[in-house]
Design goal:
single chain; globular; 31% helix; Glutaredoxin; 4-stranded mixed sheet
């Protein structure tokens, strides 16, 4: 069964995914927190552009919209696309 919740994929540490996870928690969005090892990333994510568009983590995957790597996930907030396309406001800031 496919999940209808956004998924954040990153290594098992706060790092660069901290801001995305914090924004989702602040906005009270239920999301999947997919923590992968470097070995899993190298085998299952890096070779597949649909799973890791820039070949890097973190990745924010929004069902029905797509996967966004690194700072491109923030661009969704800046132009309000997250709310228009999903009906869910992912960005807790007034820019949306």
């Amino acid at each position: 069964m496919t999940s209808t919740k956004p998924t954040v994929t990153y290594f098992p540490l706060p790092g660069r995914a901290f801001a995305v996870r914090a924004a989702l928690r602040y906005a009270k969005v239920d999301y999947n927190d997919n923590r992968v090892t470097g070995k899993v990333f190298g085998a299952e994510y890096k070779p597949f552009p649909d799973k890791a568009p820039l070949g890097a983590l973190p990745v924010l995957d929004i069902p029905g919209i797509g996967a966004f790597s690194k700072s491109s996930s923030y661009a969704l907030c800046e132009n309000g696309q997250c709310e228009r396309e999903t009906g869910v406001l992912l960005c807790p800031f007034s820019c949306c």
